[in-house]
């Protein structure tokens, strides 16, 4: 009887946690949330680096294609009150902010080939400071071609319009904006495409990936001076990479990457154009069902075409560890060092270090608790240093198998060597998250009935076994 009770609890909790995890994934987060995606979002010009912080893209590229053939609609709505909504150092402005994040993904097979497409939107509204209202729209697609027993070809593309949220890592300080000219946040449009030729993924312990990617970023408000002198951040980036991975055990592999990028800015004088090269070697392993992760170390070099600009050479690293304390409790540790393109008009680049930890715990089958803390240190080549501390915690209640609601609190603090851009912003809010598939297919009521029966078995296993 005791074993049956424990088994019932594990089954029910696992299904509830799975539903919550699935909703998070549909909303654009990874199945096991990475610390870098929580709290303080990256600036638009650093977003790809945060998303692909593992350096080796093939470690992530298959994840959405593992979904079943289906539509995956979802939406998240948050309402939160900020103490310093524009993250200013001179005046703290409190305001109520509403964010709506719809998403829709579709996955299907075309013969033995796989296709995946997804839309993600972010729409923000302010109660008083409506000039801060913004929207972001992104569309991404990938076609995975099964060429032969040993060869695969992945084609991918994405486009969108986004914006740099106030006070994020790498963005401009509010005091740097010119009132009446560019007092709104920085808007950006982008387009990218590329391909990965993969050898041995299906049959060999040795997997090789040769890839190419081209991206274009255009800022709609480059009001930072003459566009040919210091202002224009529009740029094209062409990248090549070679990845090698060798499986030395069932759940352990060593990997390496060599990459090369050409970064071309859209201005003719005092060019920031550069060539960037790097390498990384590391280990992925899963010694037990409760522990898994990847670690890597390497080197990055950035060589400017302008001989008057100082080149960069430094170490890079990446670590991501996931540890399950129990079937209902998970810890995630992340650390990374990256070289980034700046929003600061005086800087040529900055080095960004991230360290963070998050904890997700199921208190009951319906109540989920989460907390995180992370630190970001940005060192600019001009001598400017920014230190961020970001933490948050929240509680979510699973109302139905397709709907959860929660409360959360967070705080962000930037301590900079430029005191005029220091800030402290705390916020408190509510959020609703929903995976809409079951409703659109008319299965919502049946899923909810089954969900309620599972909860009943969890609470009263003896009575349930007698029915």
Return residue spans where pLDDT drops below 50 for at least 5 consecutive residues. Answer: 1-32, 53-66, 224-230, 454-467
| Beginning-to-end CA distance, first to last residue | 15 Å
- Which percent range describes the beta-strand content? over 45%
For the record, the CATH architecture stands as Beta Barrel
Number of strands: 18
Summarize this structure briefly.
This protein is mainly β and 467 residues long.
How would you describe this protein?
There is one protein chain. The protein is mainly beta and 467 residues long. It has one domain: Maltoporin, Chain A (Beta Barrel). Helix content is 12%, strand content 54%. It contains five helices and 18 strands. The chain has helices spanning 2-26, 47-51, 437-440, 444-459, 461-466; strands at 70-82, 95-110, 113-126, 134-146, 151-163, 187-199, 206-219, 235-249, 252-265, 274-288, 291-304, 312-326, 329-340, 350-362, 367-380, 385-400, 403-416, 423-435. It has an 18-stranded antiparallel β-barrel. A hairpin with a 2-residue loop joins strand 12 (312-326) and strand 13. It starts with a helix and ends with a helix.
């Amino acid at each position: 009887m005791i074993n049956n009770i424990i088994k019932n609890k594990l089954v029910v909790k696992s299904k509830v946690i799975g539903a919550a995890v699935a909703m998070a994934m549909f909303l654009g987060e990874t199945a096991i949330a990475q610390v870098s995606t929580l709290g303080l979002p990256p600036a638009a010009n650093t977003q790809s680096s945060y998303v692909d912080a593992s350096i080796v893209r093939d470690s992530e590229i298959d994840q959405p294609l593992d979904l079943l053939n289906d539509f995956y609609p979802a939406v998240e709505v948050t309402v939160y009150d900020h103490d310093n909504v524009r993250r200013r150092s001179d005046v703290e402005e409190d305001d109520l902010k509403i964010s709506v994040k719809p998403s829709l993904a579709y996955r299907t097979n075309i013969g033995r080939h796989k296709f995946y497409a997804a839309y993600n939107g972010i729409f923000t509204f302010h109660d008083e400071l409506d000039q801060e209202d913004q929207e972001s729209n992104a569309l991404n697609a990938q076609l995975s071609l099964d060429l032969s027993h040993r060869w695969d070809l992945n084609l991918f593309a994405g486009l969108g319009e986004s914006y740099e949220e106030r006070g994020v890592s790498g963005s401009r300080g509010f005091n740097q904006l010119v009132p009446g000219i560019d007092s709104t946040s920085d808007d950006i449009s982008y387009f990218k495409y590329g391909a990965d030729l993969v050898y041995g993924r299906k049959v060999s312990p040795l997997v090789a990936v040769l890839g190419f990617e081209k991206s274009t970023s255009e800022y709609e408000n480059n009001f930072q001076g003459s566009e040919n002198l210091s202002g224009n951040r529009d740029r094209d980036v062409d990248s090549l990479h070679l990845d090698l991975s060798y499986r030395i055990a069932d759940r352990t592999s060593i990997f390496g990457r060599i990459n090369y990028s050409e970064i071309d800015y859209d201005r003719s004088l005092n060019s920031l154009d550069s060539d960037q090269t790097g390498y990384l070697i590391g280990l992925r392993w899963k010694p037990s069902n409760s522990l898994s992760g990847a670690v890597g170390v390497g080197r990055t070099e950035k060589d400017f075409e302008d001989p008057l600009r100082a080149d960069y050479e430094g170490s890079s690293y990446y670590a991501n560890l996931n540890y399950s304390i129990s079937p209902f409790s998970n810890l995630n540790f992340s650390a990374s060092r990256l070289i980034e393109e700046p929003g600061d008009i005086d800087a040529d680049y900055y080095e960004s270090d991230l360290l963070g930890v998050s904890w997700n715990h199921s208190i009951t089958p319906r109540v989920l608790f989460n907390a995180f803390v992370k630190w970001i240190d940005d060192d600019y080549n001009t001598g400017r240093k920014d230190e961020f501390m970001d933490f948050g915690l929240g509680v979510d209640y699973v109302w139905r198998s397709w709907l959860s609601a929660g409360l959360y609190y967070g705080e962000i603090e930037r301590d900079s060597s430029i005191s005029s851009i220091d800030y402290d912003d705390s916020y408190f809010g509510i959020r609703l998250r929903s995976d809409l598939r079951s409703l659109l297919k008319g299965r919502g009521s049946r899923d909810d009935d089954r969900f309620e029966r599972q909860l009943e078995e969890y609470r009263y296993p003896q009575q349930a076994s007698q029915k």
